[in-house]
Amino acid sequence: MFVVTAYTYYVVYAYDPGVWSKLVAKYMFDLMDKIPKPLLIAGVHKSFGSLRALTDVSFTIEPGRIHGIIGPNGSGKTTLFNCISGIIPPDSGHIYFGDTRISGLRADRIAKAGIRRTFQAGKLAPSLTVLENIMSGNSSQKTRALEREARELLESLGMGEAADRWAADLVWAERQFVQILRAIIGKPTVLLLDEPVSGMDAGETELVVKLIGKINAMGITVAVVSHDIKMLMDTAEWVTVLNFGEKIAEGTPSTIRKDPLVMEAYLGTEE
Fold first, then answer.
1. 230 vs 9, residue with greater confidence
2. How many CA atoms within 13 Å lie on the side-chain side of 255?
3. What is the strand order of the sheet 238-243 is part of?
4. String of DSSP letters for 69-106
5. Using one digit for the tens of pLDDT, what is the confidence trace for 216-227?
6. pLDDT of 114-146, one tens digit each?
7. Would you say 238 and 62 are in contact if contact means Cβ atoms under 8 Å apart?
8. Which of 40, 86, 90, 232 could disulfide-pair with 110, CB 3.0 to 4.6 Å?
């Protein structure tokens, strides 16, 4: 790929140095755009009327990590994902993707910047096939290349034979798998997973854990919100804990397990 690209630039330069310089600038911009970037949440506040959903939340999702986010119901986890992904703007504070401030941008612009997400009860188009639903996650690629990538993703999960099934015929776990694959078509930089194993049994949860590992191995940063504490602690490299909209702790899973505030606020209720 590099040899072909370099040769193409050489030929273009020989005939038109001006065009060559523009191509090099575009190539370098594309290269810089693919460099892993941290996702920085800085002093984010969000309220709904008199309800404070997030209060001065600050932490960093480092590139290349599997980052877990936990907390009791109503602690602000999904609200945080909604602010990051552009579904709602924060009232104050900022969110940066690398050096670019993304807080306040439209959801489609944030997605194009390389941040994609799933939803706890994400919906598929029932009148489309599994393959078509996955392909709908990226309209920027040519159809043949997009279909090839979608089929490869299905094969990697052992769902290759499901490509032509109607989405309406899928069971809950299968729908969740397809939703995740739809989010990573086109290989985003960051993937936000909101309760990816909700409603799944142990075997299905294990499949999702393996899928998260494969996605992370592709170079995609993964942030996971989950009520399945064991799954998250066994999967994440770093964990942030929210309670009543505030960050109360963060660290490695082993550190979080021993944190007294965490045990009081959340983990202790799971024993």
1. 230
2. 11
3. 115-117, 190-194, 221-225, 66-70, 238-243, 246-251
4. EE-STTSSHHHHHHHHHTSS--SEEEEEETTEE-TTS-
5. 998 999 999 998
6. 999 999 877 899 899 999 999 988 766 668 888
7. yes
8. 86
The tokens describing 227, both together, are 């009520």
Task: Look up residue 38 and give its amino acid.
Answer: P
Residue among 68, 90, 25 at smallest CA distance from 234: 68
Token look-up 């670019």 returns: 100
**How many whole angstroms separate alpha carbon 117 and alpha carbon 262?**
26
What is the fold of 64-90+102-266?
Rossmann fold (3.40.50)
67 touches 61 (CB < 8 A): yes
CA–CA separation, 123 vs 179, rounded Å?
Answer: 8
Please give the single-letter amino acid code of residue 11. V
Tell me how far CA of residue 88 lies from CA of 133, 145, 181, 245, in angstroms.
Answer: 25, 33, 24, 16
Q: Please tell me the predicted confidence (pLDDT) of residue 73.
A: 86
Contact 182, 134 (CB under 8 A): yes
| Residue 100, token pair as written in the block | 């670019």
> What is residue 27's DSSP assignment?
H
